[in-house]
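Curious: can you check?
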Amino acid sequence: MTAAAAPSVASLVQSVDWLAIAPPTIAAVVALVVLVADLFLGERRKALLGWVSVAGLAAAALALLPLLDGDRSTFCLKTLEGEQAACSYTADHFTLVIQFLVLAGALLTALLSITGIKDAKNTPRALPEGEFWFLLLSSAAGAALLPASRDLATLVVALEVASLPAFALVGIKRDDRRSSEAALKFFLSSVTATAVTLLGVSFVYATTGTLHLTRIATALTHVDGQFHTLAQAGVALTLVGFAFKTAAAPFHFWVPDTYVGAPLPIAAYLSVIGKAVGFSGIILVTVVAFPSYADVWGPALAALAALTMTVGNVAALRQQATRAYSAVRLLAWSSVGQAGYLLVPIAAAAYSKDADKAIGSTVAYALMYAAVNLGAFAVAALVARTKPLNRISDYRGLYRSRPLAALVLGFFLLCLAGLPPGIIGLFAKVTVFSAAVDAGLGWLAVVMAVNVVIALYYYLQWTATLFRPAEGEQAIQRIPAPLTAAIGLTAVIGVVLSGAPQMVLRFASTGLF
């Protein structure tokens, strides 16, 4: 009995590489520090919590640097001979790129939030600072954990750790009916998607007897015939929760109301970090765990990509410039359309002989999108300080009152449209387009080309509004330093990447797995 049990006991011995898990761990520890410090700080000193959060996110991002020398794995099952059998956490190139995107995006969100919280202070809609920073850091920690997860249990836990604080952040505005409704809609739809995902995970586990992604990939290559349908259902259902996070149609309906009801920095956070979480999860479960079932998830993701980009762009096209919050709604629908583009290379990976190259196109596009979309939200936050309804018509004459902000926003919109001088946007779209063509998905490339043309109209229309004469006198306020830093950083990143777009693709696609 003892001899028979020995191998299973030995296999449970796990190693812990503290350096490998440092980025999400630092974010989680700082979250706890902020939560405890909030109990002892007076109202006048609570602003320190924001700067502590910024410093914590910066430290978490810097913790990625020692990991660049090679892949590291931890929480590994070992054989009696001490060899690694399977690991639950891996810090490879893919992990580091997505963690950088998540932590840098969370850092920019924190800079936007410092200004937003300060502006709301001493008003009926003041935000609870301690809770806000704790929730933001907790969500960032979960988002940073997810790309490193290499078993389905850790993936689902990381997805929920990233999501649950986000629900609270959306509804954190006190006495705001729109915020509460947005949070409730976001929560209920997300819980439903998570339940479906867990059902899929249970099917996969029942079929393979393991939760580790690499072991699942091996087990699915020789599934017994009577479990084939169960495995197919498990593969399809597992993708649902991650598709919800990416705002892929038909799981996108929560996006516009949630973005409008949430504080503007949180809308920016969801548009970038929420998508990074969803796409990294989809990439891991498809390319790493389910490569042998590419005939199931490949066509499904291709159809989702076509539907998502079409729904997002057509809805964005219908936004009325004078409607309240139309600028935020346009950015929300635009993010749905962009999610469709991001899905294209993942679908192409099912048909491509070089899946790493196809996935690299998605990662490169995600890096571009993160920088310019956060920048667009940063300028929207600037305009919202004097025009709280944030209509597209409120941006009329912005060039006259704030020429630099207008030029920067125009540049971001052209990047999203894929037009010069936003070279990085054009390069990213061409990369995604070529991934579809190389994989033989000509019909999907045609759908993408049509949607790019549709998107040109509303992006150029908003850009033109910036330079039209203003109606009435424009109120001008001093721009706070954190908001200036957020706008400046995203602008610099966008300009630098437009000068050397191939650098992004090389960084994103070299040795992902």
Q: What stands out?
A: The longest strand covers residues 84-91. Residues 177-208 form the longest helix (32 residues). The two ends are 40 Å apart (CA to CA).
